[in-house]
Amino acid sequence: MKDSSKGCMLQGTMATGTSRIGLLGSRLPTARSKMSPCGICPRECAADRQGGEAGECGMGPTLVVSAVSLHTGEEPPLNGPAGACNVFLTGCSLHCSFCQNHPISHLDVGRPETPAGLARRVMEVVGMGARVINFVTGSHQVPAVMEGLAHILRQAPDLVVAWNSSGYEKVETLRLLDGIVDVYLPDFKFWDAEASGRLCDAPDYPAVARAAISEMSRQVGPLVVGPDGVAERGLIIRHLVLPGGLAGTSGVLGHIARDLPRGTAVSLMGQYVPAGRAMDDPVLGRRLEPGEYEEAVEELGRLGLETGWIQEIDQ
């Protein structure tokens, strides 16, 4: 991610690995109980996932991982000096027609992994210098991720735990992660229910995302970084500008400025590339036109959202 940093971040301290392991152990039975009938995500598909039935997300009870790798394309406080350890979880409960990770989220590309096996893979990346572990689209696999994370924190208790999600999450499920996740990195994809209904089969997305992001903000507050510039806790909201104004960027940014704490960090992204089913869409089948991203950046400035990142876009 080629970013231009704006604003400043607070400094503070993060939770200890020992306290997080205790929370994970005490909450894991509750998390597992939510899988049959499944009510982990807003779809509430009621699948018997503990019994092996696949949910709306395509997953059963087993941890399924697409990749564990060192990634340098995140926001600077997550990258750190070496990059973040990204854990890409297979499947997704939000069926975006333009998904940038289509094979992982829609085609279930990945392999089953044990908690101990995930820990081994993560520790290999930590050995390369990663300070942050970033779970990408893990909302539908919360119980399995929690079990894996306990194994990881026993070996690397000082890792910063980041939760990278679509924003389509139940508040009840997010509360299982309170005190465990240090940094929330949700998308805020749509402001308009018609657009999210057509493009993600989720007309409830705007309302769900507002409630979820408010809960994330309550848990971790504004972005906090250490003296070395690595994130310790806090909220970073990502918003991808879509062609034709389909994301409702003005509404999303206005909500952040109006209803969330002052200084909430925003990562305004302009790297949209047609993917998946969007290739055949008359609007989403193209990249951003000149000026569409610049207009979003101008709106960011008008609203006084000065903490976060914008991108340098080649058009």
Can I get a quick summary?
The protein is of the alpha/beta class and 315 residues long. It has 10 helices and 11 strands.
Total number of helices: 10
> Could you state the order of secondary-structure elements as H and E?
EHEHEHEHEHEHEHHEEHEHE
CATH class: Alpha Beta
User: CATH superfamily, called what?
Assistant: Aldolase class I
In terms of topology, how is this protein built?
Blueprint: E1 3-6, H1 17-33, E2 64-71, H2 76-79, E3 84-89, H3 102-105, E4 111-112, H4 115-126, E5 132-136, H5 142-155, E6 160-165, H6 171-174, E7 183-186, H7 193-200, H8 205-220, E8 224-225, E9 231-240, H9 249-259, E10 265-269, H10 292-302, E11 308-311
Parallel strand pairs: 3-5, 5-6, 6-7, 7-9, 9-10, 10-11
Antiparallel strand pairs: 1-11, 2-3, 2-4, 8-9
Helix pairs in contact: 1-5, 4-5
